[in-house]
Amino acid sequence: MKDVPLDSVRNVVVVGHAASGKTSLVEALLHTAGVTSRLGAIDTKNTVSDASPEEQERQLSIHGSNLLLTWRGHNIFLGDTPGYADFYGEVVAAVSIADAAIVTVDALHGIEVCTQKIWELLTLHNIPRMIVITKADKDNARFQETMDALVATFGSGCVPLVAPLGMAAGFRGAVELLPNQAGEADPALFNACYTKLVDAVAETDDVLMEKYLAGAQMGVAEMAPALRAAVNACRVFPVVVCASTKELGIDRVLGAMVDVLPSPKDRGPVAVAEGEALKPDATLPSAARVFKTVTDPFVGQITYFRVYQGTISSGSEVHNISRNHKERLGDLLIIQGKDQVHVDKATPGDVVAVTKLKHTHVNDTLGTARVTFAPIQFPRPVLTLAVQSAKQGDEEKLAEGLHRVRDEDPTIIVERHHETHDLLVSGLGDVHLDVVFKRLKEKFKVEVVTALPKVAYHETIRGTADVRYRHKKQSGGSGQFGEVAIRMRPNERDKGYEFVDKIVGGVISNSYIPSVDKGIRSRISGGVIAGCPVVDIIVELYDGKEHPVDSKDIAFQIAGKKAFGQAFEKAQPVLLEPIMHVEIVCPQEYMGDINGILNGKRGHITGMDTRGALQVIKANVPHAEMFKFCGELRSITGGRGSFTMERAHYAEVPHTTALHVIEAYQKSRTHEED
Questions:
Q1: SS3 category, 74
Q2: pLDDT, position 601
Q3: Contact 136/145 with Cβ under 8 angstroms?
């Protein structure tokens, strides 16, 4: 890595929908810049960024890659990200440390679901971006139609920076609009593209607008800095076009990255959660953000971080400010696929890796400046499976492996459900979890058996009941005696269990009243009709009897527990199920099929909205019906639909469904007793 001025550093993330040409573009950029001696291709499994056997086998990006190339004296740190929805967490991590983005759009398929989702993410983080129309050499590739779609979806700020030389089979590359020299380009197309570019840039600069309205000619010297400022302000999104596998137009992409995308200096101070904003100055106290960790079977943990302020050197001691712990760094590395490039230091804008940090994880802050970054907001899981080790005795290995996987991938959630006692692993889709379980087998030598999770049903009542119960036991010597009378009625939803002491006249001693409550609580946790926790009831203890010799704590616990069970069965018991609020994003043509599936899942559509060219369906759906929805949606939409869900509330289970749940519970109890 060459030492270059701060304004000659670029930190760029490449994002886009799956199969939109990101990895092929990155390979072409690396080859054109001289980083690689031959052009890598996905089909031949020799790409730099998709270097893992899993990625090559599946022929899709799973992990984000952080690469470095040099072009015209500029250091360009390049992040290649997955486009498959299951690995969206890698996109979020990469965007969190980028100064700019390249958004790839397929010239054949146009703007797809994940592209719009990523665009919203870039807008949220105020990331300047340029658009690269890929696969311009393919049959049916259309430049103008794609440009029209970009403007319709993302606004008039999307303007061409180049004019293509032909399209489809006749694509020969592109010519720059600045300077205004059409060269081989079609004059009409060139002039139309040039006019759009000048119009958009002039609107962002008052001086240029005055000259433009006066009809004066504007040269590169005036236009270039205004264009760069407009891109940095996210008011203009320049568009270039290329054919990566033939390396046509790639030099224009590299030129645009250098000419119009911002440097750390252009981006200016970076706000932090605690402490003063960070300045891109290599002489100030250092601060770096950890955005990714990977476990390597040979070197252990590899930690990736981006420097925002100051200088961090190989072999230096830094402070993990987030955990108040010192770390000794080894060699700083730039991971170029399977190769490692050692560097002496990292300054603002640089993205490097280091091995064997013991106490540092994603979202930690390293350095000497007393600041901490706000945590990266990773996407929430949409698919959950219950897991257990396939081999008895591997439980500890499984726990350790899941812990390590969770450290690497913050989009994975591992938890033991406190009601069903399932060990649950949640992720962003079936492919995501499949990769996780394969990683457990290969890296940690533990295989798992998966199943759909148990639904966390609750039990409650609709009616009231009044029960008196006497517990009496005599087996020689001191016996047991306790009698209670309780009234049971429903509580307000989500108010839980309430115990009300209505004893008067001391018919039950104060010391035994908590025993009744304790006995009731023991039955509440295990349920009555289906083995599920009981919620939202009020129990009044209003009468009872005790014996001067035989009454004791355990007697009143048993009496309370038995009385509760009898009262519950008389008070019109019902099952409650968790209802999920689901938001589905899909193209218009799939709405009918999706609505039909939601209706079949007992779903209730609560609203619809639009998000650019996409539709948003909002619905409440029982959790029991959502376990397979991830795969169903992908099948219906060909991978063009996505969804999120979160628990909304509990609702009563329909009678027929409840009977099935109760019967299954009763059979399981009979089986256990046998």
A1: strand
A2: 96
A3: no
The predicted pLDDT at position 672 comes to 58
Is-contact 102 14, C-beta < 8 A?
yes
Q: Please, what is the angle between helix 250-259 and helix 22-32, to 10°?
A: 80
- DSSP element (H, E) containing 605: strand 604-611
383-451 matches 287-367 in CATH topology:
no
Q: In angstroms, how far is the first alpha carbon of the chain from the final one?
A: 71
| Spans of all domains in the chain | 6-265, 287-367, 383-451, 460-571, 576-656
DSSP 492: P
Q: What are 462-509's pLDDT values in tens digits?
A: 999 999 999 999 876 779 999 999 999 999 999 999 999 999 999 999
Q: Which residues contact 328 (CB under 8 A, 6 or more apart)?
A: 315, 316, 317
CATH of 460-571, one of 3.30.1360.30, 3.20.20.150, 3.40.50.300, 3.30.230.10: 3.30.230.10
CA–CA gap between residue 290 and residue 584 (Å, rounded) = 32
Contacts of 502 (CB under 8 A, 6+ apart): 540, 541, 542
User: Using one digit for the tens of pLDDT, what is the confidence trace for 658-667?
Assistant: 999 999 888 8
Range 1-14 average pLDDT: 94
DSSP codes joined into one string, 86-135: GGHHHHHHHHHT-SEEEEEEETTTBS-HHHHHHHHHHHHTT--EEEEEE-
Buried b / exposed e along 305-323 (16+ C-beta atoms within 10 A): bbbbbbbbebeeebbbbbe
CB 252 within 8 A of CB 164: no
CA 439-441-442 angle, 5° bins? 65
Question: Topology of domain 287-367, per CATH?
Answer: Elongation Factor Tu (Ef-tu); domain 3 (2.40.30)
pLDDT at 668: 80
Please compute the mean of the pLDDT values over residues 312-324 and round it to a whole number. Answer: 95
Instruction: Please provide the average confidence, as pLDDT, over all residues in the chain.
Output: 94
What is the four-CA torsion angle of 392, 393, 395, 396, rounded to 10 degrees? -170
The answer, yes or no, to whether residue 639 has pLDDT greater than 90, is no
Residue spans of beta strands (DSSP E) within 181-331: 237-241, 287-296, 300-309, 312-313, 317-320, 325-328
Give the number of other Cβ atoms within 10 Å of residue 20's Cβ. 28
Domain 576-656: CATH architecture, name and number where available: 2-Layer Sandwich (3.30)
Interatomic CA distance for residues 533 and 531, integer angstroms: 7
Q: Is the pLDDT of residue 198 over 90?
A: yes
Tokens of 89: 């967490």
> 673 pLDDT exceeds 80?
no
Q: Which residue has the tokens 């960790």?
A: 293
What is the predicted pLDDT for the residue at 397?
A: 94
Looking at residue 454, what is its pLDDT? 93
613, 153 in Cβ contact below 8 A?
yes
Tell me what pLDDT residue 55 has.
Answer: 87
* Span of 88-92, 285-289, 607-611 with lowest mean pLDDT: 607-611
Burial (0-12, 13-18, 19+ Cβ within 10 Å), 85: buried
Q: Is the pLDDT of residue 674 over 60?
A: no
Assigned CATH for 383-451:
3.30.70.870
Q: Which two tokens stand for residue 4?
A: 């270059």
573 CB-side CA count, 13 A: 24
Instruction: Determine whether domain 6-265 maps to CATH 3.30.365.10.
Output: no
- For residue 20, the model assigns a pLDDT of 95
- Euclidean distance between CA atoms 194 and 223, whole angstroms: 12
